[in-house]
């Protein structure tokens, strides 16, 4: 079938099966017909507020059916949805709104942003407005994701692709008319993109308000979910459920468990492959910029353990030294990427400038290496690297080793100033059941060389990663620099 606008693609499925369930959320749900009619009326309300083709619509709403209504309404006007966290501190949200200059902000009370048109969560359009189809229009940009708010310097990532698709062409191994579980926050690219891929393929999504490991398994069984995207943090929390609880659930409907957002620790990947089978486990790496992406299935991973795969879709990856020369296979360097159609073909930044070589290869700041077969292995972000005693240590490696301890729910590793070493490795550990320094050091000694073992430990009682598996290491480090760090000890 020919490609069509997102609005028309969803209408195609709504016309074919108006009573089919589009979204399941908590104890409620909505049909395709309901979502189609609601978004049409909402689009007309937004139009009256000044939203038109080419505009941005900032969406500061929590996970819920309303989020999808707003996105679809924006696309039907030729506008571009730009989701942000509904829980952002006010100063961060205002910085993003100032940068984006949207025509509308959904998720804020009237008058709170000066003359900017706003609608609060739960907004009801005038029932007198028509819910009939609008004139068809294609939004020039499919979405505008945000990034960088944790540094105080937000940036907008404007995709250059139009909001078009073939409503009968499956993506990422999804089933036409299948069922997808969405356990992550919709303001992140992975959940946002995959949820809409399934809806625009005529499928249904089962949406969680917040990630819950036991509930995920219950919903997969109850709704016969066949596709799900998890970040490693989610996979770890599910794996840490009592074995009897995990094995009691019928997960036979699952075709694909996609993991993305961060490299999966090898021990965790092996556990899931052993549980569900290698053919069901898929890992992907990339960014909202889409300058490159890799993919690897469980069978390939067993032959290349620790890899995130090879570039897909004609995209290319190089590993470069600081002087710009190319690294040899196995040599650590910075990951540079090139999209299939060249630099600038996938996105534009607002509020930031890409880091690129003179010939147009760009980097997101990740470090890694390629093996002899061209498989990519990631280390960590260059900006997060800790230099201690002259040695380079990547926090992600230490965190993966910490998280492998059965008492640890999550961890974050930062570098703190040290007169002798330059930086000392400090571990912040979330272990609800309790664990001590000696136990962690003994455990880490089995996984890491001595200089990578943290010199100090600090224990907290709340998860250190959000529902998308993200950790704000820079904010954690700054907080500890401005206060005395509890629990500091020596690894000697």
Task: Summarize the model shown.
The chain is α/β, with parallel strands linked by helices. 26% of the residues lie in helices and 25% in strands. The N and C termini lie far apart (66 Å).
Describe this structure in words.
- With 492 residues, the protein is of the alpha/beta class.
- Among the domains are: 262-382, Luciferase, domain 3 (Roll), CATH 2.30.38; 385-481, 2-Layer Sandwich (GMP Synthetase, Chain A, domain 3), CATH 3.30.300.
- Helices cover 26% and strands 25% of the residues.
- The protein has a nine-stranded mixed sheet, sandwiched between helices.
- Mean pLDDT is 91; it is low at 486-492.
Quaternary form: single chain
Task: Indicate the percent of residues in helices.
Answer: 25-40%
Distance between the termini: 66 Å
The count of helical stretches stands at 13
How are the secondary structure elements laid out?
Layout: E1 4-5, H1 6-16, E2 21-25, E3 28-31, H2 32-48, E4 56-59, H3 65-76, E5 80-83, H4 90-100, E6 104-106, E7 117-119, E8 144-147, E9 155-159, E10 164-165, E11 179-182, H5 189-199, E12 204-207, H6 213-223, E13 227-230, H7 232-239, H8 243-247, E14 256-259, H9 266-276, E15 281-286, E16 293-297, H10 298-303, E17 310-311, E18 316-320, E19 333-338, E20 347-350, E21 355-356, E22 362-363, E23 366-370, E24 376-381, E25 386-388, E26 391-393, H11 395-403, E27 410-418, E28 422-430, H12 437-445, E29 456-460, H13 473-481
Parallel strand pairs: 2-12, 4-5, 4-6, 6-7, 11-12, 11-13, 13-14, 14-15, 28-29
Antiparallel strand pairs: 1-10, 2-3, 8-9, 9-20, 15-16, 16-17, 18-19, 19-23, 21-22, 23-24, 25-26, 27-28
Helix pairs in contact: 1-2, 2-3, 6-7
């Amino acid at each position: 079938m020919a490609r069509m606008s997102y609005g028309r693609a969803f209408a195609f499925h709504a016309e074919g099966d108006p009573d089919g369930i589009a979204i399941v959320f908590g104890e409620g749900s909505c049909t395709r017909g309901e979502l189609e009619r609601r978004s049409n009326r909402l689009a007309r309300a937004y139009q009256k507020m000044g939203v038109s083709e080419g505009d941005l619509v900032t969406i500061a709403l929590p996970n819920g059916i309303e989020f999808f209504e707003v996105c679809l309404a924006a696309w039907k006007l030729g506008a571009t949805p730009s989701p942000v966290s509904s829980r952002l501190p006010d100063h961060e949200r205002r910085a993003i709104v100032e940068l984006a200059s949207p025509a509308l902000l959904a998720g804020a009370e009237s008058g709170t942003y000066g003359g900017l048109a706003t609608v609060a969560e739960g907004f009801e359009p005038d029932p007198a407005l028509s819910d009939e189809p609008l004139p068809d229009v294609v939004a020039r940009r499919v979405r505008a994701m945000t990034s960088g708010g944790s540094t105080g310097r937000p940036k907008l990532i404007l995709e250059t692709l139009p909001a078009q698709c073939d409503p009968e062409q499956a993506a990422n191994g999804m089933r036409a008319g299948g069922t997808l579980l969405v356990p992550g926050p919709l303001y992140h690219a992975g959940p946002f993109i995959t949820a809409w891929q399934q809806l625009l393929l005529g499928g249904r999504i089962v949406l969680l308000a917040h990630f819950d490991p036991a509930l995920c398994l219950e919903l997969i069984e109850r709704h016969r979910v066949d596709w799900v995207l998890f970040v490693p943090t989610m996979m770890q929390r599910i794996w840490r459920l009592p074995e009897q609880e995990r094995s009691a659930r019928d997960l036979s409907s699952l075709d694909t468990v996609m993991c993305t957002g961060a490299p999966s620790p090898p021990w965790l990947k092996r556990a899931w492959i052993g549980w569900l089978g290698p053919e069901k486990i898929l890992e992907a790496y990339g960014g909202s910029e889409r300058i490159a992406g890799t993919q690897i299935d469980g069978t390939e991973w067993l032959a290349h353990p620790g890899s995130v795969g090879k570039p897909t879709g004609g995209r290319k990856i190089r590993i470069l030294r600081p002087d710009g020369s190319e690294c040899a296979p196995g040599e650590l360097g910075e990951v540079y990427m090139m999209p299939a159609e060249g630099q600038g073909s996938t996105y534009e930044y607002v509020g930031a400038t890409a880091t690129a070589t003179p010939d147009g290869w760009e980097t997101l700041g990740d470090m890694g290496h390629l093996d002899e077969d061209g498989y990519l292995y990631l280390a960590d972000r260059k900006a997060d690297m800790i230099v201690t005693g002259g040695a380079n240590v990547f926090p992600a490696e230490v965190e993966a080793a910490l998280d492998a301890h059965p008492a640890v729910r999550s961890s974050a590793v930062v570098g703190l100033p040290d007169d002798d070493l330059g930086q000392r490795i400090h571990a912040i550990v979330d272990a609800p059941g309790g664990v001590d320094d000696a136990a962690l050091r003994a455990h880490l000694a089995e996984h890491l060389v001595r200089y990578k073992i943290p010199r100090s430990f600090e224990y907290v009682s709340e998860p250190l990663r959000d529902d998308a598996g993200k950790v704000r290491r820079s904010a954690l480090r700054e907080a500890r620099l401005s206060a005395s760090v509890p629990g500091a000890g020596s690894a000697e």
